[in-house]
Amino acid sequence: MDGNEKEIFERLTALESSYKSLHKRLDHIEQLVESVQRMTVEMQHMREDLNEITENIENIKSKPAKFWETIITAILSACGGGIVTFIATKLTGG
């Protein structure tokens, strides 16, 4: 092998090494892309879960208000009914 052939052989060997290294990097990048895609899907599911939890919390927070509204409505209805009965009894002479 003369000097020129040796130089070509060394350059070819260096290129092969570089090519293998690039292939490994590319494989790693492809794995990263797949991981990011899986994370994106998982984050979408987490966001849906978070929205559902937020909605449930809002429903739970509104229950005491609904409870007190029902009690006040019942008290006012009872008082109103009592007043109407009292007036009707007085008007009919009872």
Shape: rod-shaped
Count the strands?
Answer: 0
Mean pLDDT: 90
Helix content: over 70%
- Give the uncertain stretches in residue-range form: none
- N- to C-terminal separation? 132 Å
Structural class: mainly alpha
Sheet having the most strands: none
Distinct helical segment count: 1
Roughly how many Å is the radius of gyration?
40 Å
Order of helices and strands: H
Strand content: under 5%
Tell me about this structure.
It is a single chain. Helix content is 95%, strand content 0%. It has 94 residues and is mainly alpha-helical. The protein contains one helix and no strands. The mean pLDDT is 90. The protein is rod-shaped and about 135 Å long.
